[in-house]
Amino acid sequence: MPLLQFFIYVSSGILVCILYYVLANHLHDYFYKKFYKSNLQDSKLRAWIFLAPALIILFIFLIYPVAETTRLSFLDNHGREFKGINNYIWAINDSDFRQSIFNNFLWLIVVPTSCTFLGLTIAALADRVWWGVIAKSLIFMPMAISFVGASVIWKFVYEYRGPENDQIGLLNAIMVYFGASPQAWIAIPFWNNFFLMVIMIWIQTGLAMVIFSAALRAIPEETIEAARIDGAGEVRIFFFIIIPFLSETILVIWTTITILVLKVFDIVLAMTNGQWGTEVLANLMFDWMFRGGGDSGRGSTIALFIMLGVIPIMIWNLRRFKMEDNK
Amino acid sequence: MKKLSFGKIITHLVLLAVVAIWVIPTFGLLVSSLRDKDQIALTGWWKALKYNEFNEIIRTEKSNVQVKEGEYYVITGSLFSKSSGKEIKNFGITSKAPSKYKAPSKAIMKNGSIFQLEKNGDYRWVSKKKFKHKKGKRVFITVITPPTMTLENYEEVLFFRGLGQSFLNSLTVAIPSTLIPLIIGAFAAYALSWMQFFGRDLLFATIVCLLVVPLQMSLIPILTIYNDVGNFLGVSAKSYVGIWLAHTGFGMPLKIFLLRNFIKSLPHEMFEAARVDGATHYQIFMKIVLPLSIPAFASIGILQFLWVWNDLLVALVFLDKMPSEIVLTSRLREMLGEFAQNWEILTASAFVSMIVPLIVFLSLQRYFIRGLVAGSVKG
């Protein structure tokens, strides 16, 4: 029975979508021929038939909400009364918010750096061994799984038992093996942030690695050959030839992971729900969306701070794509 | 055979170490999900193939099961239920010497009766006098359990913890949320690449801007709209249609952007030839562009499918938590609180949630990587 429902739901949803385009275009052709009697190819209307669903959806789900969220950030918790910059003043004085800003900065520094460094190193190493393809495939695999799934995997690695018990978490078992005492890793303030970041790095390094791998192959062999003949060692070649070649790629990876990290939510929610000093903006916002019936003013204010982080990237993208289009 | 230089060996070793760090956590999860739940709680998964020893105290049968054989009174029975596969190494009959005897052997009780215990837990207790004990006599044993692999945990989570239904719910969310934005995005991308209309450049610039807008900006206003629509129509604000549209909206800029890049790269002579032959844009789209775009659809579709399948935030906000709607990621997150110490449930559940992405990854890796690389260029 649930299976039948599943098929009905899924197929009807997709059918409605397809039906719009087929019907709208056929109706357009029918009436156009009837009233204009001119060449169908000249129709100015068809572009809008093609665009309408996309435009409506972009407007309702992205453009209007951006304006509305900005407006709500100046209103009270129910979005009724104007409160000026009260929400912003609250945010700056709120200890959870400050903690979140601090942690988000920490994530922004550590995660993109680590992913870029690890990704480049692994890509460079994997090109040199015969089993590199398998290695890359295995390192890339976490990209496919969910943040929640990854959190379960790592929560199991960090699992803590009292020192009198056998440790079933890998990390604590290693600690005990080397004679140290087991720790409740995700409850150690400040340092626990890094244990959460490990999960993100574990997932995202694969992406950096794949992109670097493609970029490395694009470096002309002759350039490296020439440097080698001139007597440059592998390390020098890496830093003075390969890295400059990759600067554009590094920037792309950096921005991709930065955007992702700004929105980090699932990992924190699943691992600690912001306890023990691990709060981040996205989780704090989610919390305020529902806490005490929901506070749309504070929630929106926090969302705007996340938005603030992506604006430089947005401008950079705009410039970049304008240049590409003019090529 | 090339000679192995010192640097080459280091390369191999470092890469091997990195791969090990990357794979071991997932491997541990997989192994644990297949272990017996008592063993998961007792030992680390790396001991899964070892025989485990632990101590137990088990009582014998009460005196009412005794049988008279000749001049002796006899109680027979087993310390374990049926075939547990457990094996007794040592046993004892007092708490002071819990492993005094090595099984199988005979122990002499205080009252002179003889207690014989086999390795498999079967015992035979013989006495000259009639047994009178009301509670069973305590026997201290050291048990060795063989490593067992079982699918019981999967059975448990799929059929008794609602994960089977959640799996179906995730599919119900993910399939339309993948196909609808692809269809809508493809038409819009075509219009942006090959049709003339007012405000084309502005629209494209807007889409580039929207690429990076965090979806947190949309959550509150859209939730409000859904609540209003729900109230107005007298239906629940949380529905599959709602989440399909939300995923469609959040994925739309990237879908249009990537598909536009692809459709624009198709040779323009083809379009001109079709136009000369009198084809309308609709015909060109359906007959030429669509078939040519299948590989691009595959890459972008996989990307969107995995994104939706793995999403937690959108599902938490726009779907109900009742069994008929809750998706895998959301259920898994609930379980993290509900069964914090039941690793047999958590590991199996996590693996159920990962099985579809892993299959997609293993079978369509090439498309997946292509989509991701193209998608990351947008930032």
Give the SSE map.
The complex is a heterodimer of chains A (327) and B (379).
Chain A: H1 2-35, H2 46-72, H3 86-93, H4 95-126, H5 132-140, H6 147-158, H7 170-177, H8 191-217, H9 221-229, H10 234-245, H11 247-262, H12 266-271, H13 281-290, H14 296-326
Chain B: H1 6-33, H2 37-42, E1 52-59, E2 67-69, E3 72-78, E4 87-92, E5 101-102, E6 105-108, E7 114-117, E8 122-127, E9 138-145, H3 152-160, H4 163-194, H5 200-210, H6 216-233, H7 240-264, H8 268-276, H9 281-292, H10 294-310, H11 313-318, H12 328-338, H13 343-377
Helix pairs in contact in B: 1-13, 3-13, 4-7, 4-10, 5-7, 7-10, 10-13, 12-13
List keywords for this structure.
heterodimer; A: 327 residues; mainly alpha; MetI-like fold; 2 domains; 14 helices; 74% helix; 0% strand; globular; B: 379 residues; alpha+beta; 5-stranded antiparallel beta sheet; 4-stranded antiparallel beta sheet; 13 helices; 58% helix; elongated
Q: Give the tally of β-strands of chain B.
A: 9
Count up the domains of chain B: 2
CATH class of the largest domain in chain A: Mainly Alpha
The description of the largest β-sheet of chain B is: 5 strands, antiparallel
Give, in order, the helices and strands of chain B. HHEEEEEEEEEHHHHHHHHHHH
Major sheet of chain A: none
Mean of pLDDT of chain A = 86
CATH architecture descriptor text of the largest domain in chain B: Orthogonal Bundle
